[in-house]
Write a structure and sequence with these properties.
Blueprint: H1 2-34, H2 69-80, H3 92-95, H4 142-151, H5 160-168, H6 171-181, H7 188-199, H8 208-213, H9 223-233, E1 258-259, H10 277-280, E2 289-290, H11 312-320, H12 341-352, H13 366-369
Antiparallel strand pairs: 1-2
Length: 377
């Protein structure tokens, strides 16, 4: 009898173990099939090596978002599609349009319902090389930057969950996310990672300056632009390259740092926008804004973080006058009124040489091209 009791106990233990294992398989298998774990949010598809034009370095790529043909194509569509905005009128391209150097014509951005932002749209061109995004550096990556305008009440004004639900209800997008990410489930992280992958292809190089400086084509720049380049580099003249950097092998035309130029200061030196300081609370960042690249600068009027200068000549004149006085004015800013009018014209000619034709594949997909909002704000 004792042997029989032991046998029954062993039998029931084996049955219980089998049921536990079966239940575990039933509970876990569907979850894994439905979606990838959060730590494995990597795209699938055909890997892409982003080709950079003359004058630019390799594009930095985050480990968790390597570019693929599918995510770039999906991100391009999301960038130009107003589906992410509350009233279906505003896309990323509404304020960062290809025809205007991936910024817009308004001094400040215009969002849903005609609401006005507080700052001019920074260019997306070469933003892949920026250590921090936005004028005040509040986003550490292109992925995080892309989240901001969607939820901002004066831009797209859509909660992330609502934006995802709208995409999830569109069979076309469900299929595209399946191709790009290997899952039917759309998430805000996959949305912004796709947009960021596209934005890393929005590159501007191979300009007349690049062909002259890096391609050694001495005919690529006019005589005036060549003189302007020398003035741009000369620390005793323009000294522009101390912030708008030109390297031995490539030129980003930005030091990726933040500087106070006195933009927005009143006659008493008080600033109406504190810039980077609002993020860091560091006195050294008071009224400081990120140095923008000068790539395609001739296309990107108006200028400065508040769009206060209608022309490049107006922006140059600000530096000629030594900026606007305020207690936190950057030490690099000083009057350049010793530059002759001819020298100023040469600097402007050089800056014109930083514009180059952009590739067609970074413009809107053909079926969305007609839906784009003209950048004439």
């Amino acid at each position: 009898m004792r042997i029989l009791r032991i046998t029954f106990v062993a039998f029931f233990i084996l049955i219980a173990a089998a049921l536990i294992l079966t239940a575990g398989r039933l509970n876990t298998a569907p979850a894994l099939a439905a979606d990838q774990p959060a730590a494995a949010l990597k795209p699938i598809g055909k890997p892409v090596a982003i080709t950079v034009p003359l004058g630019l370095p390799p594009v930095p790529i985050p480990a968790d978002n390597p570019p693929t043909a599918e995510t770039i194509a999906l991100g391009r569509r999301l960038y130009y599609d107003p589906i992410l905005s509350a009233d279906n009128t505003i896309s990323c391209a509404s304020c960062h349009g290809a025809e205007t150097g991936f910024t817009d014509r308004g001094s400040v951005s215009t969002g849903v319902g005609g609401k006005k932002g507080a700052r001019h749209s920074p260019t997306v061109l070469n933003s892949a090389y920026s250590d921090l995004q936005f004028w005040d550096g509040r986003a550490p990556s292109l992925e995080e930057q892309a989240k901001g305008p969607i939820i901002n009440p004066v831009e797209m004004a859509t909660a992330h969950d609502a934006a995802v639900a709208r995409l999830q209800a569109d069979p076309k997008y469900v299929a595209l996310f399946k191709q790009a990410w290997g899952t039917d489930r759309i998430t805000i992280d996959r949305v912004v990672k796709s947009i960021a992958s596209f934005e890393r292809t929005v590159l501007c190089g191979n300009s007349p300056f690049d062909r002259f400086y890096y391609g050694h084509d001495k005919k690529a720049l006019s005589a005036s632009a060549q003189r302007g380049l020398k003035l741009f580099l000369d620390p005793k003249k323009g000294d522009c390259a101390s912030c708008h950097t030109i390297g031995e092998k490539y030129a980003l035309f930005t030091d990726n740092k933040f500087h106070n130029l006195g933009i927005g200061a009143d006659i008493e030196g008080k600033l109406n926008d504190l810039g980077r300081y609002d993020q860091t609370k560091n006195d050294a960042d008071y009224g400081a804004f990120k140095t923008p690249t000068l790539r395609a600068i001739a296309l990107r009027a108006p200028y400065m973080h508040d769009g206060s200068f209608p022309t490049l000549n107006d922006a140059l004149s600000h530096y000629i006058g030594g900026g606007n006085a305020n207690p936190h004015l950057d030490k690099k800013i000083h009057a350049l009124d010793f530059l002759t009018f001819d020298e100023r014209a040469d600097i402007l000619a050089f800056m014109d040489s930083l514009t180059a034709p952009l590739p067609t594949e970074i413009g809107p997909p053909p079926d969305l091209a007609k839906a784009q909002k003209p950048a004439t704000k």
